[in-house]
Amino acid sequence: MRGRTAGAKGSRILRTNPDFRRYWLSSTLSTLGSQLSLLAFPLLVLSIGGSAAQAGTVATLSLVTRTLLRLPAGHLADRLDRRTVMVGADLVRLVALSSIPLVAELGELGQAQLLCVAAVEGAATALFAPAATIAVRDVVPRKDLTDALSRSQAAMASSSLIGPFLGGWLFTVDPILPFAADALSYGVSAVLLLRIGTRPPREAADAERDNRLTAGLRWLARQRALPAALLFAAGINVVSAAAQTTMVVSLRQSGAGGTVIGAVMGCAGVGAMLGAASAAWLIKRISAARLFLLIGAVWALGLAVFSWTTDPWTIGPVLVVVVFFSPPAGIVVGRAILVLAPRDLLGRVSTATGLLMAGLASLGPVLAGFFVDSVGASRTWLLLACTAAVVTVVSSVPLLRETSLDDNDADADAGNDSDSDSDSDKDADAADEGGVPSPAGASRAERTADEPQAGPAAPDGAGRVGPVGLVPAPVPRPGTGGP
């Protein structure tokens, strides 16, 4: 009965929650647009006479801009209206991407123009990400967070799988088409976000606020279970980033061509899609600690297999299995942040989390290249397998007696499904008629539970925070920087 109920709830969230549906469509379309231009950017630099180093500079500048602005962006998201920030960021990116076809039409397109676009888009993406995290908190009741994040991650995985292939095809038709499509996706996203009707909860007049830029990092340092989960996620992200570089190099050294390498790497996208589709089912049945142990064991075994074979027909299926278990862990961490973090700190907490994991993951490719050159690909795979095992044991074992990261809302809400469904349907109808729905059709008791707390929330047995790395669960789009 519980499995059927959970599945039915998950299948209804896009239909009965109009604000989440708008957010989901916005994120999915703009993620796909970003994936279209992801491959096209370096190709365009090369097509106008740029070098390989210049092509890499465009991506590096965007990454550096996003990294430097993470904490300030979270600070602004906590102080300003999140819908205004998201729409503004989309409009800035619309203008930035639109400048590429416009300048190309004038015959003036050059490296400087593309660098400016990369920097502006990176800055706008840094602002968008924490505001999007807050938006999910506002429009999705706590009991539906797992299903909402699962659907977001599935959409992102699908976009990441088909986007580069579609972008490459569009580039062959016309080098400017991927950028025009990406700009259009931002415009559609802004329109959808403007139609979100749920407003943020009002703050108490005497509520104390921590306005420090580092408030998110300070809050994370005071938590018990969440730092261990973040350690696991950050460690696996480093291993994942290193594995991507090692995979490409080892396959290339074995004589595999570009088409074969692309097909093998595409298996990671297949695994991510399947994992996201199954994430809600797994999370409701396996505790966070045991889920992390399972994921770490699968990663360690899978990477060990890569150390003794370069056969694409073996590597591809193993890669699907390895990546399959990553989305559930990302959703556990993402949900924990949304539930546990006070709303007035949520933007800074989400950016602090992203900074910790993205900063460490950026070391992966460099370390992989060094070790492959020094000890060879086979030993590098074994080293990565050992790293995954150590990170898993160190971070997961302390969580075996900890339940604050587990999704226990399904049990608490099982007896209220019919009432919740009725409220959701009424709110959906009201929104379609131009009314403003209550947050995601939540009951009055649920809305009260979701309002900001004076300190870190202590939900009733539920845990909280939320590629192919691992986490956090997708709230912003991966093609433009992730959380």
Question: What this model shows, in words?
Answer:
This protein is 74% helix and 0% strand. By secondary structure, the protein is an all-alpha fold. α2 (18-47) runs parallel beside α6 (145-173), α2 packs antiparallel against α7 (177-194) and α4 (82-105) runs antiparallel to α5 (111-139). The relative contact order is 0.17.
- Would you list the SSEs in sequence order as H and E? HHHHHHHHHHHHHHHHHHH
Anisotropy-based shape = globular
| Largest sheet descriptor | none
Structural class, from helix and strand content? Answer: mainly alpha
**Percent of sequence in beta strands:** under 5%
Nearest-integer average pLDDT: 76
How many β-strands, per DSSP? 0
Number of distinct helices: 19
- In angstroms, what separates the terminal alpha carbons? 36 Å
Helix content: over 70%
Please compute the radius of gyration using only Cα atoms. Answer: 22 Å
SSE topology sketch:
Blueprint: H1 2-16, H2 18-47, H3 52-79, H4 82-105, H5 111-139, H6 145-173, H7 177-194, H8 215-221, H9 226-253, H10 258-283, H11 288-306, H12 312-324, H13 326-340, H14 346-361, H15 363-375, H16 377-396, H17 409-413, H18 417-432, H19 444-450
Helix pairs in contact: 1-2, 1-18, 2-3, 2-5, 2-6, 2-7, 3-5, 3-14, 4-5, 4-7, 5-14, 6-10, 6-13, 8-14, 9-11, 9-13, 9-14, 9-15, 9-16, 10-12, 10-13, 11-12, 11-13, 11-16, 15-16
Compose a concise summary of this entry.
By secondary structure, the protein is an all-alpha fold.
Q: Could you list some keywords that capture this structure?
A:
483 residues, mainly alpha, 0% strand, disordered N terminus
